[in-house]
Write a structure and sequence with these properties.
CATH topology of the largest domain: Collagenase (Catalytic Domain)
CATH superfamily of the largest domain: Collagenase (Catalytic Domain)
Oligomer: single chain
Strand order of the largest sheet: 6-1-12-13-11-9-10
Largest sheet: 7 strands, mixed
Number of strands: 15
Bound molecules: zinc ion
Strand content: 15-25%
Structural class: alpha/beta
Helix content: 10-25%
Length: about 300
């Protein structure tokens, strides 16, 4: 029997344009073995611990939430091997929101047409060129991770109340993030979302913090099963840059779309006018973002080899 594999990924958006000196970084909390020994193996940090339930895997990920490094685009993978053999991997990406950059010109390109191919590798070969999925898959070992189609059973979101915020401000921010989800669905991702009042009933939790201790604006973590199907996730978003400057609505929306892209299974791209670029320059999805998301949700989860 294959052992379950859980992936917890943490996606971090960083803001490096502040003229103020960065706050001191939190100490990195790396996973250790039960006797406190730190183990590294090709970018994976392994740790012996207990249960391998998804909830435990996600909770365990908090223990090695490495302090983000805002001046790099992609950090090495950090992961932990549970005693059961389950793998927990924490992947942290850093990106820059270029608050004052002009809107980049939209990428023009033809929409991908449905291909007759049913073999995922053939489908990728035919349609992948208009997307950044080949780039994503080359980076992560050809593992497709995505949610199941959720048109019939909407993804259950829970929004944590913002500490100290008025209900009106909370509602406005929630609307921005719900709109960000809607933008991906309009692009062709077959995922509807629904808000739930009980966090215990949710699959995705969204939280706000005033700011992170380091110059980042948000992060996303998710857990997938052995077959690559994403089962749960959480997104944390900052209201202010580390220097205290508030993120405007456009920045919140763009960062929300970027983080949701990660939540849905997309990785960064070298297309710098896409929302999934490590340095976010745009305020909406590009055609390449849309094509990539559509194609991702026509592929089955799992390894494409
Ligand atoms: Zn990112």
């Amino acid at each position: 029997m294959p052992r379950p594999l859980y992936l917890a990924a943490s996606i971090v958006l960083a803001f490096v344009a502040s003229l103020r000196p960065a706050a001191p970084e939190r100490p990195t909390l790396a996973p250790r073995t039960a006797d406190g020994r730190l183990l590294l193996d090709r970018g994976l940090t392994r740790v012996a611990t207990g249960s391998a339930s998804p909830a435990d895997a996600a909770a365990h990920a908090d223990d090695f939430d490495a302090a983000p490094a805002p001046r790099v685009d992609i950090r090495p993978s950090v992961g932990a091997r549970l005693a059961s053999g389950a793998l927990v991997r924490d992947v942290t990406h850093a990106a820059t929101w270029l608050a004052r950059s002009p809107l980049a010109a939209a990428i023009t390109g033809s929409r991908t047409e449905p291909a007759p191919a049913t073999d995922p590798r053939e489908l990728l070969a035919i349609e992948g060129g208009a997307t950044y999925l080949p780039e994503n898959l080359a980076r992560n070992g050809s593992l497709v991770t995505r949610w199941h189609d959720r048109e019939q059973h909407p993804l259950r979101l829970w929004f944590a109340p913002t500490p100290g915020a008025s209900p009106e401000a909370d509602a406005a921010r929630t609307a921005i993030i719900l709109d960000a989800f809607a933008r991906w669905r309009e692009a062709g991702v077959p995922i509807r979302v629904i808000r739930v009042a009980d966090s215990a009933a949710s699959e995705v939790q969204i939280r706000w913090v005033d700011s992170f201790a380091t110059p980042i604006s948000g992060k996303t973590r998710w857990v997938h099963d052995a077959a690559g199907w994403i089962r749960r996730g959480d997104i944390t978003l900052a209201l202010e840059y580390v220097g205290g400057m508030p993120l405007g609505d456009a920045a919140l929306g763009a960062i929300g779309m970027h983080e949701i892209g990660h939540l849905f299974g997309l990785d960064h791209t070298s297309h710098d006018t896409s929302i999934m670029a490590p340095r976010v320059r745009v305020r909406d999805l590009s055609e390449v973002d849309r094509a990539s998301a559509r194609l991702l949700y026509r592929l089955p989860a799992g390894f494409l080899r």
